[in-house]
Amino acid sequence: MLINHPLLGPRDAAEFVYLGDACLIYRPDPEAEDAARAFYEYAYLRDNPAGDHRELWYHEQGDRSWLVVTRNTLSHEITKVELARDVALARGRDR
Amino acid sequence: MSQKNRIAGGQIDRSTVLNFTFNGRAMQGHPGDTLASALLANGQRLVGRGFKYHRPRGIFTAGSEEPNALIELRGGAHREPNTRATVVELFDGLAATSQNHRGPLGFDVMAVTDLLSPFMGAGFYYKTFMWPKSFWEKLYEPVIRASAGLGSLSMQEDPDSYDKGFLHCDLLVIGMGPAGLAGALAAARGGARVILADEDFRAGDGSTAKRWTWTAWRGPIGRRRRWRNWRA
Amino acid sequence: MRYSAFRIFTEALRGNRGWRPAWRSPEPKPDYDVIIIGAGGHGLATAYYLARVFGITNVAVLEKGWLGSGNIGRNTTIIRSNYMLPGNEPFYEFSMKLWEGLEQDFNFNAMVSQRSILNLFHSDPQRDAFVRRANAMLLAGADAELADEAQLRRELPFLDFDNARFPIRGGLFQRRGGTVRHDAVAWGYARGADARGVDIIQNCEVTGFQIKNGVCKGVETTRGPIRARKVASCVAGSSGRVMALAGMRLPIESHVLQAFVTEGLKPVLPGVVTFGMGHFYVSQSDKGGLVFGGDIDGYNSYAQRGNLPVVEDVCEGGMAIMPMIGRARLLRSWGGVMDMSMDGSPFIDKTDIDGLYFNGGWCYGGFKATPASGYAYAHLLATGAPHPTATEFRLDRFARGHMIDEKGQGAQPNLH
Q1: How far is CA A43 from the centre of its chain?
Q2: What average pLDDT score do residues C105-117 get?
Q3: How sure is the predictor about B8, in pLDDT bands with cuts at 50, 70 and 90?
Q4: Model ipTM?
Q5: d(CA C398, CA C386)
Q6: Range of B192's domain?
Q7: Which residues contact C64 (CB under 8 A, 6 or more apart)?
Q8: A30 domain-assigned
Q9: Yes or no, beta carbons of A46 and C298 under 8 Å apart
Q10: Would you say domain C117-178+254-341 falls under CATH 3.30.9.10?
């Protein structure tokens, strides 16, 4: 499986460590009313789709960047690769 | 030497003789032979026994799809069980033995199971061997396990070292038959970095065994003369 | 039709024309007492025990493909009860005891072979961890035996004891562990359930649930709607897809696990050997092939195939511990869909939707649990209460802080 790193070009998936669903970028607000419930769902519940999945990969053996990869879990075809930093900034996080 | 099963032509080098053994019996072949073609040249048609009923088995195909001619190649720690004789390139000093028989290959005592075939239909073992309860592990299963499997491992550590490398190309062509050769040549001429790979030890695949394909072929790239250069 | 050597003999004398199908292919009825989704090992076992133990026979098992086509049809066949945590070990030992009586129970030779399972250790801390686990096994009524290097050298001389990186210092044996013929388990349970009136409906995919006001009343399928008082999902790696039809998210990720078998060889390996540090385990089937595997690939997948780096890793693990297998040939490799849970342990539970039940999260260890999972799920469906050995297998245990985390890895499915 090849991951087309936005800065480094196509790299073998074996250079990376997989974390999981990219929803992990969106950490709930600990001060909110429903924080306990929100953190439970954030930490433990997953969509786990049979289809396109946005997920976090860590380039451990490369530039040690985090990527958000859009990959189809039925065919393993990767259609989009973004720097996780860009995804977080676009969502209004400060980093 | 005269080997009456040989036909004229082909890609073997008749000027060199290779010595090999099958079940200890000395035989001869030529460079370009597979073990299977050399066995047939030496008149050896029986090469193994079937898995379940130990029926006599001969050489069935000319390639990697071979289901019957499974032999043990080499001895000692280098022994390789379940090797298809049809893909082994004959070399001087090759030693091969047949598998899965008790007693000589021509008289396998396990063939008695063939007489019991009406009682041993597909999946029969699911319908029995349940009583007495302890007999499965004490008797039935050990007997089944001893008669199962085809070749045997040497039980010694594999003495060879292996390496792996990585290659990169624009186009990987798998198969060195006429289509693969033509495609690789066309791509290479177009400037692509091409890797052309085949499981066999010789290019041309079955086409080298079939003379008619060379005269009948009309390709977009070369004429017949150019293809003869490939074969040499 | 009862199976026995006598039956084989008499049928052979009649030209083998008297054999009858092992199960029917009925049309689905419009309603049942219980619908089980998934005719895999666990689903068929559930139907069997519902009928045999609890007397509930108005049951349908719905299967989108053909029965036994999922993970029950392609696993590495190991049975063992060598877990550590109190939420797990009594359940797996209950399963082991069910395995021991299974063939006589359902009159089908499942080839239950208690040839032993051995976990190798390579360091003092690992030995300490195994001692602790062995004690937990003994406390739960299972058997455990610690072996030192000298004993292993006698029993399994072909192992690479002096491996430079992972020298073998000893191992933990469970002598009652071993292997079972996986297909026979599906077929034995299917035949037993069918004979007691359970309808096994193949080529019938669930496409939706009939849920109204928080109550589940049945399912929509490719063969029409079917009503039921209780609907029990039992679909392993497909749990996410199926429960999403009920609007549920689960603490599960679906991952691919690859497994391998060599060509048939004369007997070389008497039992199951596991090399935990190298992520490798191996046994030899009754047909002669070495059956082995290692770790999951690590990324979410429903593809039922994995990638080459894992193939190489697994073979490397095998060569490190058993260098004699270098001359054997790989015959077949495959991948399945594992329902990896957030703590590596399973669920057998009601859901928040009345009448809808869930069994899943078995990760890569569902096969050994087949009898107990079926029995416990049947118990829950029949009585409304969890089986005493399965009380911790709740969907809400993460919210309550009651993880059953054998590996101690935390809430990341691909680490379990």
Answers
A1: 14
A2: 97
A3: confident
A4: 0.96
A5: 18
A6: 171-231
A7: C203, C204, C205, C206, C222
A8: yes
A9: no
A10: yes
